[in-house]
Amino acid sequence: MSEIEKRQAAACALEEVRSGMRIGLGTGSTARHFVDLLGERVANGFECLCVPTSETTADQAAALNIPLTDLETIDRLDITIDGADEIGPGLSLIKGGGGALLREKIVAAASDRMVVIADSSKVVEALGRFPLPVEVNRFGLGATRRSLELVLVEHQAQGALNLRLNSAGNPFVTDGGHLILDALFGRISAPEALSQALLNIPGVVQHGLFLGLCKRAYVASPDGVRTLND
């Protein structure tokens, strides 16, 4: 997806927001365009109050003088605009490729609406081609991993379970201080059942299946931007 297409999708999502709204700000390369465009509006007098889904997004928004708050100060958001790694049937999503899935899900769940911006390659017939990120506690990692491997077998995963590493080859650490195990399923035939199975593992903090949260997606391609609704 070209940066031009990403910006086009972000511009469509920008039309969803109104002055005075409380907005969740997503994380990732496409969401970054939305934050930039919102910053331009704020510079021209647009009023909003925003909750970022990562420290990276928080830094970007602060540099653009976008007013920020948190979910201790306010209890609900009007809308969250975020990206996705996969968009499946019913606007089910896989998110977390950037490592911010826990905060992204907290913010999305605290919003009246979640709107996704993505490119057409992210739209799939069934979730699972993109590795599913599972955020886990550092303590008991071996036990948690063994339990996850049993879930992969039960759900007929076609690939392995890998500890995510950073560019230096060390374990990737989330903003919350957790680790991420990426599970390659190939095809997830029962996402709701998988979601519950993962959350039943004590060491799992959260996972990247976003089910029943997204209400609309703006999907960009060289032919333009199309809208998907739930």
Automatic annotation (TrEMBL):
UniProt-listed Enzyme Commission number(s): 5.3.1.6
InterPro entries assigned: NagB/RpiA_transferase-like (IPR037171), Ribose-5P_isomerase (IPR050262), Ribose5P_isomerase_typA_subgr (IPR020672), Ribose5P_isomerase_type_A (IPR004788)
Annotated substrate binding sites: T27, G28, S29, T30, D82, G83, A84, D85, K95, G96, G97, G98, K122
Reaction it catalyzes: aldehydo-D-ribose 5-phosphate = D-ribulose 5-phosphate
Membrane-spanning intervals of the chain: none
Catalytic-site annotation from UniProt: E104 (proton acceptor)
Entry-linked Pfam families: Rib_5-P_isom_A
SUPFAM superfamilies noted in UniProt: D-ribose-5-phosphate isomerase (RpiA), lid domain (SSF75445), NagB/RpiA/CoA transferase-like (SSF100950)
Swiss-Prot/TrEMBL keywords: Isomerase
Pathway in which the depicted protein is active: Carbohydrate degradation; pentose phosphate pathway; D-ribose 5-phosphate from D-ribulose 5-phosphate (non-oxidative stage): step 1/1
Single GO MF descriptor: ribose-5-phosphate isomerase activity
Known partners and oligomeric status: Homodimer.
Family: Belongs to the ribose 5-phosphate isomerase family.
Alphabetical list of NCBIfam families matching this protein: PRK00702.1, rpiA
Task of the protein: Catalyzes the reversible conversion of ribose-5-phosphate to ribulose 5-phosphate.
Protein name: Ribose-5-phosphate isomerase A
Lineage: Bacteria, Pseudomonadati, Pseudomonadota, Alphaproteobacteria, Hyphomicrobiales
Gene name, Swiss-Prot/TrEMBL: rpiA
